[in-house]
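Researcher: I've been going back and forth with a colleague about how Aminopeptidase P family protein might be arranged in three dimensions. Neither of us has a model we trust, so I'd like an independent prediction. The organism is Sphingobacterium tenebrionis, in case that matters for your notes. Sequence below.
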Amino acid sequence: MNHIEKLASIREQMKEKGVDAYIIPSSDPHISEYLPDRYKCIAWTSGFTGSAGTLVITADFAGLWTDSRYFVQAGEQLEGTGFELVKLQVQGKPEYATWLAKQLKEGDTVAFDGNLAAVAVAQAVQQELQPLGIHVNGHLDLLDPIWENRPALPLEKAYLLDEKTTGQSTASKIEAVKAKLKDKRVDNHLVSSLDDLAWLLNIRGNDVHCNPVVLGFFLIQADKNTLFIADGKLSNEEVASLNASGVQVEDYEKAFDAVKSISNGRILLDTKRTCFAFYDAVADGVEIVEETNPSTNLKTVKNGVEIEHTRNAMVKDGVALTKFFKWLEEEVGKGELTEISIAEKLQGFRAENDGFVDISFDTIAGYLEHGALPHYKATEESNATLKPEGLLLVDSGGQYKDGTTDITRVVSLGNIKAEEKTDYTLVLKGTIEGSQAIFPKGTRGYSIDAITRRPIWEQLRNYGHGTGHGVGFFLNVHEGPQVFNMAAIDILIEEGMITSIEPGLYREGQYGIRIENLVLSKAVESNYFGDFMDFETLTICYIATDLVDKTLLDQKHIDWLNRYNAWVFEKLSPKLDEEHAAWLKEKTLAI
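Model: Here is an independent structure prediction for Aminopeptidase P family protein. You can compare it with whatever you and your colleague have in mind.
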């Protein structure tokens, strides 16, 4: 079936079942950002391949609600599918629920598959529509009956990491979570989110592209701890190791019944990371405590072992990037390079490093106007050929067994215009301002966001995405709970967090600029006025200086850039051969 036919088939089922509107979220039973093929429901239904969006289908309208990162991409991918782009005003907000409230009447029914919708999403729909007399059915799957040859769940092997890698044992992590549960007088806790499960059990897998996680649920109870995972994913020795850490192993499919069988006490569920089907299955006599998974807050603060491993991974990543940019500079004039081929080449350079597992997300290699699409991924149709002119944006990362990387650089391929230099320098100025920030303990991410944006705002420019996201340790490249964005999110910046700083400027149809480093939040000093923190930059890759307009920088920015590039050379040159070291030396000369 093509997308028009799929839409028609969904509408036929809606009519048969008395459903007036059907919602398809972008998630899975674990409320993941990146999905196994089986749960790429929005891509299968509409053709949109972005990682954030919601489809809403009525009898006479079908729309995709998504945010500014995907406006151009969605507009192109939805053409001819029967779906229209609806632009979100606020990223992540379920604005489609408000739209439905205006379109539907009392007695109408809205439905969705509760295995795919987060509790928070389901509650937002219920709170908006039920007071109007609109019925909400959270247990209806209209895709599976029509999805021919739907991919099965992945069956690749999982594996355990030792304490030398993680810095903390599985048993001690579980005890730390149980201590938090005890404080809240909670008897049971379901962990659905795959990165939380991976961190808690020191387990990794290959079930999700670019994310080293394994599908599973983890149920913590007063008298036992149970991992629900597909049979055969772990060896007998690994199961025995988990048993020794106080973890029983059961089949993946038994998790739902295990939660349903809890008959009393209290259960903690993270409404943003748990699907509605589990939430709705909790027995009436069990009190639900709706809070963030304790492991989420524990996981984001990296221990000393994780930090040292990450520093080591950054050196390896920097070597790969140096080789890549030298190769790119030498080859671009031949007219044979494309966005896809350079992404593959970069992955190849990373793969030469010890401990490399995978890329940490699909490489964004955006040439000219494609650089203006923050989440661009080249396809065979869009794959641009590089020429020795214009700007190239490369946003990429690696998954190593000793850390996760995420970096964006922009380089000139030749014939740069004054406006491009101005925009580049303003973005660089923002990156430097954020990286140099000194702030009191207790600061939230929106303050760092404002500090980073200030030099860009001063020139009446802005960008539509957040300034930074948390990054896991050999885990998801997007990790909460901290974010650096404009929203008033009440999450403190804590010592040991690893977060990106990545301002940008985008001119649709022309070019995009983003400069991204990862930083480690650290304590700097305590004095009469309080406790203060700053950032240690972790990313090790030169920042191009041929695009810089020095007249737009203060001396403190020039000094930072020169120190940073000198440090990059110092860290990487011992790992490079003479030819690559000489090239990097030229790239890191002071301006």
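Researcher: What would you highlight for our discussion?
Model: I'd start with this: The radius of gyration is 24 Å. After that, consider the following. The first helix runs from residue 3 to 17.
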